[in-house]
Amino acid sequence: MASISFRNVTKRFGDTVAVDNVTLDIRDNAFFCLFGPPLSGKSTILKLILGLEHPDEGEILIDGRPVTNVSPAKRNVAMVFQNLALFPHMTALKNIRFPLVERRIDPQTIAARVTDVTDKLHIGHILHKPPAQLSGGERQRVAIARALVRDPVAYLMDDPISALDARLREETRVELRRIQQQMGKTLVYVTHDQEEAMSVADSMAIFENGKVRQTGKPEDLYRHPNSTYVASMLGAPAMNVVPMGLASGLQVPNMPTRAESLGVRPENLRIASGQGATITEVEPLGGFTTLTVDLQGTPLRATLRGQPRFSAGESVALSVDAGRAHFFDPAGAVLVAQ
Ligand SMILES: Nc1ncnc2c1ncn2[C@@H]1O[C@H](COP(=O)(O)OP(=O)(O)OP(=O)(O)O)[C@@H](O)[C@H]1O
Fold first, then answer.
1. Distance, CA of 31 to CA of 329 (rounded, Å)
2. Domain ABC transporter, which positions (predicted)?
3. CA-wise closest residue to 214 among 76, 23, 9
4. Candidate from 10, 13, 33, 196 with most ligand 1 atoms within 8 A of CB, to mutate
5. CB of 87 closer than 6 A to ligand 1?
6. pTM, rounded to two decimals
């Protein structure tokens, strides 16, 4: 069990500031997602926790104790790397047993732990195969099993299921969530997939260029983004952000005078018969429908439940659900959410 904290941590590689003055608190037993675009510093954060990299400035604490001078082995954190790093000449079973054999754990304990973990991951039937004979999803599970079989203070996973197809990713993330809860361990999980982060995380940090832009529970970040950047990172389709010059077409009361732009989630954009905007596209997606609406040359997205009877070319009036407009200043920082 472990909480993990970063205190003003900076890590540079030459001229690149990979991690820029990051302060983070990951509580014990959390499923914590690091989320952001490529090269925003997420993997470097994991390597700093693991002890493979060292901060240039600041301090990292595990369970409240600084780990600057603690070797990776003594930190006792288990990692699943993006490239899985399975040993090709060993069977799945030997790969999974490896961290325990290396630590000279007694064979009975090894057998019990391997059975426990392989049952949880439903891979008991493939243990005799080497990695080359496994599917991508199976290899992924073997790599995850090899991390879970240890008894570390925390697990770190670097985009562990990005190589899987959409359905398998969805299944695996649900399982990971379940297993993390069963194990009762802190899991720090890197992803660049907002849906994955939103669905599994207790708490998350959103990164941009090595900086943490906002941390919190996914639903809080979704409802109360502190900036257009965070707003745009969560939700699909993304939040509509329109310049205030167009806001009068959305019938929003009490607009702050300092606002530069107004943000509306697609599910909070109301569409009714009337004038002011034109529907340009209708995408029926089964349970809901996505509409694209042209507001004076600016395309806005709206999601509606079911299959509403709107068609392309139709004139409509737009409005925003009461209390669901966001206002941003010229720098993109939130002013107030209504
Ligand atoms: N060992 C290294 N040497 C030099 N530069 C590095 C090294 N590791 C990371 N970087 C740089 O630090 C920055 C952050 O990289 P990092 O891998 O942490 O980002 P990331 O958000 O995990 O990206 P991805 O989602 O693509 O894995 C990048 O600009 C990267 O090129």
1. 33
2. 4-234
3. 23
4. 13
5. no
6. 0.89
pLDDT along the chain (338 residues), means of 10: 93 97 96 96 95 96 92 88 82 93 90 90 91 88 89 89 80 86 91 91 96 97 95 93 87 84 94 93 91 95 89 93 90 76
- What tokens were used for 182? 């069963």
- Which tokens hold the place of 197? 């982060």
Q: In this predicted complex, what is the ipTM?
A: 0.97
As given in the structure block, the two tokens for residue 69 are 């001078």
CATH of 4-233 among 3.40.50.300, 1.20.120.1200, 3.10.620.30, 3.60.10.10: 3.40.50.300
CB 290 within 8 A of CB 302: yes
E strand or H helix that includes residue 197: helix 194-200
Q: How far is the CA of 299 from the centre of ligand 1 (A)?
A: 34
CA-CA distances (angstroms) from residue 134 to 60, 163, 174, 268, 337?
38, 14, 21, 45, 50
Q: For residue 163, how far is its CA from the centre of ligand 1 (angstroms)?
A: 19
Q: Which CATH architecture has domain 240-337?
A: Beta Barrel (2.40)
The DSSP symbol for 338 reads -
Alpha-carbon span 331 to 209, nearest angstrom: 16
State how beta strands 65-66 and 298-305 pair: unpaired
